[in-house]
Amino acid sequence: xxxxxxxxxALLLASFAAPGFTQDVPDGPEAQVLKEAAxxxxxxxxxxxxxxxxxxxxxxxxLPALIGDRxxxxxxxxxxxxxxxxxxxxxxxxxxRPMEMEAGRDYSLISVSISPEEDATLAARQxxxxxxxxxxxxxxxxxxxxxxxxxxxxxASTAGFRFARDPRTGLYSHAAGFxxxxxxxxxxxxxxxxxxxxxxxxxxxxxxxxxxxxxxxxAILLRCFHYDPRQGKYGGLVMAGLRGGAVLTLLALGxxxxxxxxxxxxxxxxxxxxxxxxxx
Length: 280
Known about the structure:
Blueprint: H1 3-17, H2 28-35, E1 38-39, E2 52-54, E3 60-62, H3 63-67, E4 72-77, H4 84-96, E5 108-113, H5 120-134, E6 142-145, H6 149-159, E7 161-162, E8 164-165, E9 172-175, E10 177-181, E11 187-192, H7 198-209, E12 223-224, E13 227-228, E14 233-234, H8 236-279
Helix pairs in contact: 1-8
């Protein structure tokens, strides 16, 4: 990239990072909602027994029946989420498609909505899209569930999945990721963030199949909070993160420009030395 192009890109990023980019500055209640969102790694915890959910066909189900004698991937989020939830599903699809293990044959996949207002119709639509994109097997072991506030709370509490609803927008603040459980419904491993390694996930499923528990993973605090559809912009705390990323990008661009300048000076000096040597 040419130096003037780098400068142009730096100015563009700086304009996004400027304090005046948004007036949606975090205040007390908004900041508190964000702080409540986290993913604690409760390795070895057993999923709650006799907790009932509703599957994509509107039938009452319990997690042990869906897991069976295989390990399972469990995703918590909500289907009408305008931000991270779809990215978590995208990242999960990118991880499971290349694996030798197959959903249904080797493991189950369970997505649970944290919103008690979502229903089986919405779950069915989201599941159909996911199954089609996965493109392997018959999808019989891929379950998209909804549930009551009590059932959701019990599962989320056991998994260490802390979330909160923003009373102003009605959207949920929550962390990004999922966890793997053993056939006896014990939490074995967490995957946090938005990108997941296929080899690591396959190994985690094999470890869970043996009934073993993996180790803690580095906490990547990507939180879904919050996009205001009425104002068409992200909340102030999210913008603060974006600004931080812009600053890092600017630093990287600055270093790149310095290196390019040094290389050009070195190249010019070398060329001058060769010309001087040739004229002697």
